[in-house]
Amino acid sequence: FQVDPGDKRVVEVALYVSENLGRSYEKVATALPTDKGFNFSAKRDGWYWFTVQTIDEDNNRYPSNVERESPGLKVYVDTTTPTVILKEARATGENVSVQWDIQDDSLDITTLEMEYRPRGGSWQSQKIQKVERGSVTWNPGSSDVIEVRMEVKDKAGNLGVARTDVQANGRGGGGWGGGRRTSGGGDLSSVQKINSKTIRLNYRTEDVGPSGISTI
Q: How far is CA 121 from CA 80, 116, 117, 145, 172, in A?
């Protein structure tokens, strides 16, 4: 805030906030005219409307009723990551197909991107429609397992990420991501529930070079 330097009568500036779109305001901080600002910590995501009130040396307040005034600042706090659900869809021949579903209250759909790569290869961009719910089918040029990654941001800059594995013959893998909820192949038949904190994982190696493998 900025107080007119010529107005020496102001002795205090009060900050009011509304969390219900201006229906009521609560006084949350005070400052001296020379402080130039307030620190405010939001309790939750959502809209915060702010207005200030000055108090002079005679205890006159302007405005006298902050609820009748237009807010000086409106801020929407958004700390929630977009939900990205990514799963394999039915495809034929050498094609692969992926469906997605994105959920967020302030999504910036223009930031939606999809990439794919054969396992261990380089990422390639896949052209898709920038929509919240959609699907795409393409020929990745490989019969190997294809890793697919989708990213999108909301208007506050929070990044949602999801990944899944697909294969041209229709065999899919699990999915994972950085959103609140992600999904892989959509088939939970391979999920195992165990009663031990020790997990044994089997693996196999393919295309081992002449120098062999030192670490997995």
A: 32, 9, 6, 11, 18
Under 8 Å CB-to-CB from 145, ≥6 apart: which residues? 118, 119, 165, 166, 167, 173
3-class SS of residue 58: coil
Residue type, 3: V
* pLDDT tens-digit series, residues 18-52: 999 999 999 999 999 889 899 999 999 999 999 99
Task: Determine contact, residues 15/40, Cβ cutoff 8 Å.
Answer: yes
d(CA 20, CA 159): 27
- Is this prediction's pTM over 0.70? no
C-alpha distances (whole Å) from 113 to each of 20, 62, 97, 153, 207 are 35, 50, 16, 10, 30
State the pairing for strand pair 159-166/146-154. Answer: antiparallel
